[in-house]
Amino acid sequence: MPYYRFDSGLQPLSAPPEHWQGVLAVLSPSELRAAPLPEGLTPPVMPADAHESQFCWLRADHTCVTGHLRTPPRANQSARRLSFTWLEGSLLVVDHDRVAADCIGRQSRRLFDSAADGADPERPALYPAAGDPADKSGADGAGK
Fold this sequence. Notes:
Blueprint: E1 3-5, E2 11-12, E3 23-27, H1 29-34, E4 57-60, E5 65-71, E6 80-87, E7 90-94, H2 99-116
Parallel strand pairs: 3-7
Antiparallel strand pairs: 1-2, 1-3, 4-5, 5-6, 6-7
């Protein structure tokens, strides 16, 4: 599911939205070619200089913010990248390596599993509440 509403939690959408305020679209470069986008929300343009695309960058002007994130390769993982455009409360992510889609999928499953176990579905399992046995921050004042 490449479209989500994020104005009150991350909610998957079954189709591209009619109104894009508070919408996250996570599209692969091939999906992007056919995706309906609202007027003004243009995909981020890769830098003309190939050397510049090896680094992270952010550009802001009076209409939007665009950027490119790249993680360097590791011994067990190739370099990964994604690009984005933020415009008037809408976020378009061009997910070249499915990094964002996989992360959203894992988080969605984690939230679903937490809700099925009776946990608060609004609180991701990654962030335990203060006083929760999984909380190692000592935020409850007990100084764990």
